[in-house]
Amino acid sequence: MLLACSADDPAEGEVGGTRHDLRDLAALLRTGHGSIACRTGLDPSPYDHVVGRIGVHATAAQEPAGFVLLGDRSELRVVGGKESLQALADRIDGLALEGRDGEHWHGEHYPGHPYLAADSYPVVISLD
């Protein structure tokens, strides 16, 4: 799995992986805690930085999930209530199981989004 990001305008990240990688990410989201190491030392183009880890932390409260890029860009954290993390896992699993190679999904908040927080860092999830 490769995670690349840009902290500049427009700030956005992309998680790219095989079907197996995306299923592993969905399983981690369902667990609610832990992390996955991402490949490093690769060209992040069109982004400007490779991020080494995705971490997950479920909160006690039932709150929306959010992607949080750490200030040093060493980790993308996914934080939120179990139900929101489950909904995010279902969306990623759906892409892994039913998507076509090259298909992607924009994990971005919009008004009324059912499970992503308003301040969530925008992330594209792509099936390589």
Question: Tags for this entry?
Answer:
single chain; 128 residues; alpha+beta; Gyrase A, domain 2; 5-stranded mixed β-sheet; 2 helices
Order of helices and strands: EEHEEEEEHEE
Briefly note the CATH topology name: Gyrase A, domain 2
Mean pLDDT: 95
Q: Judging by the overall fold, what is the CATH architecture?
A: 2-Layer Sandwich
CATH class: Alpha Beta
Order the strands across the largest sheet as they lie in space.
Answer: 4-1-2-9-8
Content-based structural category: alpha+beta
The total of beta strands comes to: 9
Rg over CA atoms: 13 Å
Low-confidence stretches: none
Strand content range: 35-45%
Q: Kindly, what is the distance between the CA atoms of the first and last residues, rounded to a whole number of angstroms? A: 9 Å
**Discrete helix count:** 2
Q: How much helicity do the residues have?
A: 10-25%
Question: What global shape is seen?
Answer: globular
Number of domains: 1
